[in-house]
Amino acid sequence: MKKSIKRELIEWVFTFIICIIATLIIKSNVFAMPMVIESSMENTFVEGERVFENKLSYVFNEPKREDIVIIDKYEGSKGILHNTYTDARATLNSILGTCEKRYIIKRVVGIPGDTIDIKEGYVYLNGEKLDESYIKAEGETYAGNVTLPLKVPENKVFVLGDNRNVSIDSRDLGLIDYTQVKSKVLYRIWPLDKMGDVYKK
């Protein structure tokens, strides 16, 4: 009887560990439903909302203008093992209360070949003033630390937050490498009354 209980306990522990590993792999490499914990994308996303991110979106495709993406502002590397380890470490740090925010949500404004400029508080794409109906306040885009105008090179994107006054983005971080783009945000899933495709006009 004792051996049977011990064997059953080992099986439960083993099953639990396998489930945790499988969950981490899926969360790190396939999809996740993170909570927005910053105000840099207002009014598109408000702090406390939850979104659905597809981590397979850029396996065979490249980011496009106006894509809402989640990026790793510290590292540019991809792969199942790397993604799983990085996500597990970030999750553990969050539980321990030592989390340094590494994943941020932003909007792609410039892709390879684009020329970005910021003049009098407005963004210009390839010489044309952008119509940015999604931003929180018009005419309040400061240039930041980048030298403008700037041409986006291959395998890079220029990202901005929709709430330009508080957003840390390419104006501070510089151009974002494709390997730093971890996923594409597709849907808002919380609150229920705002659930839906975030790209619908």
From TrEMBL:
Keywords: Hydrolase, Membrane, Protease, Transmembrane, Transmembrane helix
UniProt entry tagged with the keyword Transmembrane: yes
Main location per the UniProt record: membrane
Membrane topology field: Single-pass type II membrane protein
First-level EC class: hydrolase
Family the UniProt entry places it in: Belongs to the peptidase S26 family.
Name recorded for this polypeptide: Signal peptidase I
Gene name linked to the record: lepB_2
